[in-house]
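User: Let's play a game. I give you a shape written as tokens, and you guess the letters that built it. Ready? Here's round one.
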């Protein structure tokens, strides 16, 4: 686990000592330099590509923002396609496709979306003057490069400019890192032992147990890495966004996506879902807003699936969630409005039932993550239903 490796700890210590012992005006340069060192240490082979994408997005004029944005997304798509056979037992690990000589450059999935955000918002004039040091600190901030969260430049710059690292920050940061390590080692990895039984699962109860274990493993695994990233950032007095807020307590699939991988879902909302919806309203579909909403959900969550990997399982998982969100949208506009008249609709029992139903749909969707073969996923569904 990278966050607990001795060389990573030494890297953080060196960066922290440099950061707290220079004037505030030079702290961006310190973070940029140590971020570059992180890439040279952990991914020297892909460092030139990563540095090239970062520099390109900065030096090309904002009026030509589509050039660096398209280049970045094109590179991401290439690597996602070349590593499409990768299974996801841990969303936070570097993707290595079995039998493939191509590696997904470290942190590229997160960096790519940060670069596209930067290109778009600079073109919109929302970023003001961006110094090279501030930009490099944002793009090379290594605590977020392993497993996110996906940062936004204005929020990061505000957090960096207001950073006042002290004893309280160090204590809070270390506690958050320890929480993440415990979630990963004590909980997620132990649940992973049960998930490993998937190869010989042959009864509905066995498959259900594995799916339930994986449902919590994937949450604990990914949120653990977010905890560690947030904790390391806090050592520097920098607050980065929370990425998970008790997602399995959601009462609807829509609420789930405001609690799960928040930095990704909000990015997709702002740069895929809403723009596609606005574009659709300029077509003949403008007289059918419900159809626009459905199409927007499907397109947006196809993008979410593709971000995880360009293979059939991830794409089907994205379409599955897009379909659930579309159905929820239609339900709210029709059935829910009528049910609201009944007292039971707003009762505690109804809320518990909503959480249970939402959890069930989300857990079922993780079957697509358990295997990179859609046929195998469908076999597991049939097995759970008692039809081997």
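Assistant: Ready! My guess for every position:
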């Amino acid at each position: 686990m990278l966050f607990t490796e001795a060389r990573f700890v030494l890297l953080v210590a060196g960066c922290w000592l440099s950061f707290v012992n220079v004037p505030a005006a030079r702290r961006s340069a310190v973070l940029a330099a140590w971020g570059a060192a992180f890439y040279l240490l952990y991914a020297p082979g892909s460092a030139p590509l990563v540095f090239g994408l970062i520099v390109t997005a900065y030096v090309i004029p904002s009026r030509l923002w589509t050039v660096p944005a398209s280049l970045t997304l094109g590179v991401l798509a290439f690597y996602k396609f070349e590593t499409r056979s990768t299974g996801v037992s841990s969303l936070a690990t570097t993707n290595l496709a079995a039998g493939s000589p191509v590696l997904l450059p470290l942190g590229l999935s997160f960096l790519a979306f940060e670069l596209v955000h930067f290109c778009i918002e600079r073109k919109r004039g929302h970023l003001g003057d961006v110094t090279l040091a501030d930009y490099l600190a944002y793009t090379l901030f290594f605590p977020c490069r392993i497993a996110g969260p996906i940062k936004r430049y204005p929020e990061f710059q505000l957090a960096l400019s207001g950073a006042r690292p002290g004893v309280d920050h160090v204590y809070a940061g270390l506690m958050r890192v320890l929480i993440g390590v415990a979630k990963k080692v004590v909980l997620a990895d132990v649940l992973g032992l049960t998930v490993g039984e998937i190869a010989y699962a042959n009864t509905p109860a066995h498959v259900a147990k594995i799916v339930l274990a994986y449902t919590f493993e994937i949450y604990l695994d990914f949120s653990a890495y977010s905890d560690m990233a947030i904790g390391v950032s806090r050592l520097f007095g920098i607050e980065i966004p929370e990425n998970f807020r008790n997602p399995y307590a959601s009462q609807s699939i829509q609420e789930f996506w405001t609690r799960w991988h928040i930095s990704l879902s909000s990015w997709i909302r702002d740069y895929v879902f809403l723009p596609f919806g606005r574009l659709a309203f300029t077509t003949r579909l403008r007289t059918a807003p419900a159809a626009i909403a459905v199409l927007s959900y499907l397109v947006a969550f196809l993008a979410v699936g593709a971000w995880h990997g360009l293979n059939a399982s991830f794409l089907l998982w994205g379409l599955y969630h897009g379909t659930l969100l579309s159905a929820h949208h239609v339900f709210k506009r029709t059935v829910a409005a009528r049910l609201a008249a009944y007292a039971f609709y707003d009762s505690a029992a109804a809320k518990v039932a909503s959480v249970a139903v939402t959890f069930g749909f989300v857990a079922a969707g993780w079957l697509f993550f358990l295997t990179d073969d859609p046929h195998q996923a469908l076999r597991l569904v049939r097995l759970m239903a008692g039809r081997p």
